[in-house]
Amino acid sequence: MSFWQKLGSDLWQHFWVADKIILYVRIVVTIIIILLATWFSARVFNWVVWAILHRKRGSRVKTVLPLLQSLFGYFVLAVALVVILRVMGVDYKAILAGAGVVGLAVGFGAQTLIRDFIAGFITLFEGLLAVGDYISVGSVEGTVEKIGLRVTQVRAFDGTLWTIPNGELTRFGNKSRDFMRVFVMFDVAYEQDPERAMQIASQVADEWYRQNQGLCFEKPEVQGVLNFGESGMTVRVICKVVPLKHWQAERELRLRLKKAFDACGVEIPFPRRVVYRR
Question: How much is the pTM?
Answer without folding.
Answer: 0.62
